[in-house]
Write a structure and sequence with these properties.
Four copies of one chain form a homotetramer. Chain A contains nine helices and ten strands. With about 270 residues, chain A is of the alpha/beta class.
Chain lengths: ~270, ~270, ~270, ~270
């Protein structure tokens, strides 16, 4: 299968890829902390979130503007209006921003403003979209499909790399299994496998996997302990009123507490 | 969850949806047989295939022109040139044609020529694409995502229906499980569940699930026995030289033999 | 892996194994219908069930006496008292009986009375138990573990065969997957794989897989269509009051209706 | 479902259960390290292993004597002779010993010598065996079935508790999923779920899940980071010649290196 991902393979590129986004380096010795609300909902919400991210040592601000939702009747995001709010919040607090892109037609316009483009799990094998982001030079965070093998994931990354964009970040976010106690099953065993097979940075998103706020912090610590280059978490000023993913979003206090423990945890286990 | 698919739900639409494509009705008493090569490879190949489909009582000609492939280095299809060949072959032998569409930008152009648009498994939750085919009036066959629950699948169908296109056909093609003896696990139990929950027609594609030519015929018979409205199979003049999916494609003789047994099987079990 | 099951392998034993149980042959041209309640609950219940099985052409009477239950607080079966009732009912109506054995210490005593010993899914790799039934000459029906690959299942059968008992029947009953619309996912694709790899008879139990009474009949038909040597179903005089598995048990009328369609279905598809 | 495990539930027993085995406490503040070869193979092998475990701060010596093997033709263990060697090695180096019990008939005899009885994954729902170990007072480590939900696992623990044995330890060892890059998928998300639902100690066995020696250490660190009360690893003087599980066994040097990093890792993340 490794012939499906020769550009992504560590065999052909032994050194880790470092991805520079403003002041942040992803893939290096220092772990990164990506945080923000699931969806951008209002100016107040994203500005407040950005401030809390920055004050607690977070590195990148996340916020969804175009939301892939299982049901056509769920909140679909604020679109470009949300993107402008996200960018404003990021600039105000000195944080690069990441947002999801769902449509190849939107890639150019979003890439002008966002610092990192996210490809969501459901689009991991949307090859048209992969090629479109591959034709930009904006860093891309490729989330693992919830039923995709590691090798299929690396082959999906290859679609981006093969178009010329070398700035690809992988994000483990849980796979679908028979277990229903957690929303998905976080596959932390994938991290050492990836670190062996590819030179690309690996981020872990524990909240989408477990689906419950209380379990995010221990899984975030474990993600760094197993060797990930960073974690991405969701937080919200008032999770109970979030328009999406409230159950797995941290409160600001919970986020502050998590942030305070992650860096020493990382230092100890390396 | 049924609030995610009110248009697809049988509760709100008790009678079966019948989809008329040229002389063929999908969703009615008579099962349909959709057949053809995985990919259109040449004029000879598709013309020969179409003749064999027609001569053996097949109802619809399939052929991929735009191919979603795990690896960017695999054969990606002949594109619009392939589509023209497919349409020519269908017209010559009186068969409506079905082909996959992968990109929302291509929907309009493909819908002008193809009789049925296929949404592949990897794109089942490509919501941009679902909305785009929903804005046409061309029948759409929505394949189940290999990671998707029945309810998520119906919610994906809802995206198409909600845009105004009522001609949606569902196609079970196997789900991903731990078992590796077969390529995927054909979920025939999904058929009676679907027949209860939705009014949309249900087709089964046994070949993608089992991945081995010898096992296609018994699974096709079982698909009709369990109540599906039809089956879709792959065949090729010379499977050993097929550019994609050769291992699961029937030879023409195997196809003729399968076609000869399907209709009596259906009659007996209804 | 085939070295793990050389006695079970068709390579070393090309002809189908036929298992004779009283007047019934399992593994031959005629499909068998095994039916009865999940648990033996009372003399009336099992006698009535046996009569209905016999009157509708059923071949073997099933009834659980020792029940493996997820919770220690669920009904655990009537034990040897239930076995005596089961045997009495079988003799009265001329039906061989099958019951589950859970403990190697019980094997000898149960084998004196039952015609077929069932090994349940949870015990498929209880190697002590497999060896114990292997030392009898009583036919054994080995249900697939809900977590077990086809090759592991055949290797489990090998434990029985290697002890000298050649009368092993395999029973597909669904595997565990992410899909929750059905209780488990019936893997009918396993049937043609088994028919190729082994000479042992293959029975399908659709009710444990789907978990819902209404879906049992279509899956039973599909099981014969795909090539199984028979089906096993649960029925009960009053499913709503059954002490176990009521939701998936057929009423007597539903059973009669299913039995009436199975044989013609089989004839048509062979 | 919690009615299936009222004795195991934290609701009814808010404080952590502490299990005392010789000088070791399992379930308390200090993590435990259980180590040793997969199988006891010879006096030299187990004595040497025990010395290395003790010298590096390991707390409990593991060694299989009765081995559940997928194939009847694989090495089945040294039996009681192996148990005597294991006990001798443990006594020599001051380590309590744990070994697997597969048969209810063996429970009494093994419980006289071993300090902890292990129930393997394949026997997690062997209810006869669970009841048998429940009638002893020897601590029991119950490994999770590879396709068992957390609630089924707790209900299996309940079988032991309900017989009167309160000394139950849970051991996560990976679940079966579609991913084949690792042998199974280690479900570290189960750890915080368990810590919430039950008062029983939770150990993680990363090697059976990943199946590759190089990935054991990062997953062991992550296991402590996520909150487990200890880890169990396999090591062998010469993994290439191990009679079972050589691929996932650590060398003595790798074990020493792992042991040296685990305790500081634990301290930092608590």
């Amino acid at each position: 299968m490794s012939s499906s991902y020769k550009l992504a393979s560590r065999t052909n590129h032994p050194r880790n890829t470092l991805i520079h986004v403003g002041p942040v380096t992803i893939g290096g010795e220092e772990p990164v902390l990506i945080a923000g609300p699931c969806s951008v909902e209002s100016r107040d919400q994203i500005m407040h979130s950005a401030r809390v991210v920055a004050e607690n040592g977070g590195n990148v601000l996340r916020g969804g503007c175009f939301k892939p939702r299982t049901s056509p009747y769920s909140f679909q995001g604020l679109g470009y209006e949300g993107l402008d709010l996200l960018v404003e919040a990021g600039r105000t607090y000195g944080l690069p921003v990441i947002t999801e892109v769902m449509d190849s037609e939107d890639v150019g316009r979003i890439a002008e403003k966002a610092d990192i483009l996210q490809i969501g799990s459901r689009n991991m094998q949307n090859f048209t979209l992969l090629k479109a982001v591959g034709r930009t030079h904006t860093p891309v965070m490729l989330k693992r499909g919830m039923m995709s093998s590691i090798d299929e994931w690396l082959a999906a990354a290859e679609y981006i790399l093969a178009e010329g964009n070398t700035n690809v970040i992988l994000c483990e976010r849980g796979i679908r299994t028979f277990e229903t106690a957690t929303r998905n099953t976080l596959d932390l065993g994938a991290v050492p496998v990836l670190l062996e097979r590819t030179h690309l940075p690996v981020i872990v998103d524990p909240a989408h996997a477990c689906g419950v706020r209380r379990w995010v912090a221990p899984l975030a610590k474990a993600s760094l302990a197993v060797g990930a280059h960073g974690v991405m978490v969701e937080m919200h000023p008032n999770p109970a009123e979030a328009l999406s993913d409230g159950e797995q979003s941290l409160t600001f206090d919970e986020f502050a507490s998590l942030a305070a423990t992650l860096v020493p945890a990382w230092a100890a286990v390396c």
